[in-house]
């Protein structure tokens, strides 16, 4: 088994707000992230796939294909977007880094054919990142 | 769904690697420059990884304000700009980064109950890092 990681970057804005909470609860729990005008991050995404090395190609996965899937499923949908309003997963879920990692996993997992998705890591900043391994 | 959240922090501290159980020659041979009696310092990078189900109401494994508050209060303020050898945690223990990993893991394990502690990782320099995930896992790595 060999693991391969591809990095990508995208920039997006978001805000944290749960309509079931009172305005006071939203402010207390989400702090500055509750500002309804949103704020942005330069996200770094690391997608790790695993698989056996194909003896003919020497690849775990064709990086061109992985890059195409990443561009289509994630970057085209999220780069320079307001996540709350433009990415359907976040119409109902709060666009935290945790939920972003889960949403990216759910977008990629069914589209990867040759290799198996191992980990999605999303850096919100260089000091904060979330790993999702597809665990229930 | 279960996610892992990692937060990075920095603090600077000094230490001297010296074991009372060794002779002066053994200390010099074992610790080299790190045995200098005047000590030396590092900018430590601390990574704390916690895990747990993502709360559907908040979208969070745990609130970063709580994790940051605990780490600032119990770790950064206490260890930052200190000589590790003088701290109670290192009485009788050599303040290697291995032992620092274990010490910080134990502080978090005892005091931070809002998410499951997965591991502590230290970068002593850009070239050295150390990880500890608790005794059960026997997972002390030098990477």
The shape of chain B, in one word, is elongated
Q: What is the number of beta strands of chain A?
A: 5
What is the string of helix and strand elements of chain B? EHEHEHEEE
Mean pLDDT of chain B: 94
SS content category of chain B: alpha+beta
Largest sheet of chain B: 6 strands, mixed
Radius of gyration of chain B, taken over Cα atoms and rounded to an integer in Å: 17 Å
Strand order of the largest sheet of chain B: 3-1-2-4-5-6
State the helicity of chain A in percent bands: 25-40%
What proportion strand of chain B? 25-35%
User: How far from one another are the termini of chain A?
Assistant: 23 Å
Strands of chain B, count:
6
* Uncertain parts of chain B: none
Explain what the structure shows.
The complex is a heterodimer of chains A (136) and B (143). Chain A has five helices and five strands; from the N terminus they run βαβαβαααββ. Chain A has helices at residues 23-30, 63-78, 83-86, 89-92, 97-108, and strands at residues 2-14, 39-51, 81-82, 116-125, 128-132. The longest helix of chain A has 16 residues, at 63-78. The two termini of chain A are 23 Å apart. In chain B, helix 2 (64-79) packs across helix 3. The two termini of chain B are 29 Å apart. Chain B is elongated and about 60 Å long. In chain B, a hairpin with an 8-residue loop joins strand 5 (128-132) and strand 6. The model of chain B has no long low-confidence stretch (mean pLDDT 94). Helices cover 27% and strands 33% of the residues of chain B. Chain B has 143 residues and is of the alpha+beta class. The relative contact order of chain B is 0.19. The chains are: A alpha+beta (136), B alpha+beta (143). Chains A and B meet through helix 5 and strand 5 of A and strand 1 of B. Strand 5 (128-132) of chain A pairs antiparallel with strand 1 of chain B.
């Amino acid at each position: 088994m060999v693991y391969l990681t591809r990095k990508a970057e995208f920039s997006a804005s978001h805000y944290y707000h749960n309509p079931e909470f009172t305005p006071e609860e939203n402010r207390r729990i989400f702090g500055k992230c509750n500002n309804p005008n949103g704020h942005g991050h330069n996200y770094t995404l690391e997608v790790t796939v695993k698989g056996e090395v194909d003896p003919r190609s020497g690849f775990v996965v064709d990086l061109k294909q992985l890059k195409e899937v990443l561009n289509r499923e994630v970057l085209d949908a999220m780069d320079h977007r307001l996540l709350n309003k433009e990415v359907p997963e976040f119409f109902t879920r709060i666009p935290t880094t945790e939920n972003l990692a889960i949403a990216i996993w759910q977008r990629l997992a069914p589209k990867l054919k040759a290799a198996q998705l191992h980990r999605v890591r999303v850096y919100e900043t260089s000091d904060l990142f979330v790993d999702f391994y597809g665990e229930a | 769904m279960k996610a892992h959240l990692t937060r990075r922090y920095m603090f600077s501290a000094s230490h001297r690697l010296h074991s009372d159980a060794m002779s002066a020659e053994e200390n010099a041979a074992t610790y080299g420059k790190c045995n200098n009696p005047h000590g030396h310092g590092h900018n430590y990078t601390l990574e704390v990884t916690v895990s747990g189900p993502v709360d559907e109401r908040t979208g969070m494994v745990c609130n970063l304000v709580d994790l940051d508050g605990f780490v600032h209060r119990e770790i950064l303020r206490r260890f930052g700009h200190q000589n590790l050898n003088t701290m109670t945690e290192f009485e009788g223990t050599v303040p290697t980064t291995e032992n620092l990993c274990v010490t910080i893991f134990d502080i978090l394990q005892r005091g931070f109950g809002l998410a499951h502690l997965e591991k502590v990782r230290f970068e002593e320099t850009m070239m050295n890092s150390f990880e500890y995930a608790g005794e059960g896992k026997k997972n002390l790595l030098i990477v």
